[in-house]
Specification:
Length: 178
Amino acid sequence: MPTASQLAKDIPPLVPAASVAEAAAAMQSHAVDVLPVVSDAASRRPAGVVRRSDIDACGAAGHDPRACPMRNHLSTAYVIARPDDTVDFAPSASGTAAAALVVGEDGRLLGTIIAPPGASLTVTPAHNIEPMAGGMQGMELIWRCGDCGYVVHRPASPPDRCPDCGAPRENFYLVTED
């Protein structure tokens, strides 16, 4: 399986305040059906993705795509990947990822991987943390969300999404406290 850095393409991201019409024009000019969205141009922190189906839903809801901001139509059909994570594609199933947003150690967007039509993608972390059975005496197993700091005590693995901010499982990291 290829790594995220081998598959990532430099697709210029948009910001949530950009109009849906701007997203549609960017999709057409880059010949893609998914665009990355970052919180702001300076930080380049992933905020979501917008898919062609999200743009279509805007018009179907009676919104004016020239005035409607993308923040109203962001999709959660994405995962976060690090450059050395492996990526695999499979036939699409509901609730699966249409894109992977590849981020560096600083959390800034480096590139985007878009699943081929009719497929979804999965990301396998390069540095998979094995669940600890029993733990170490005096130590407590804790998962912390890298986005908001939400803490989950003693599970074998982090939740699929952060209960506080909605960040994906990949944004959790393992910490220990005495």
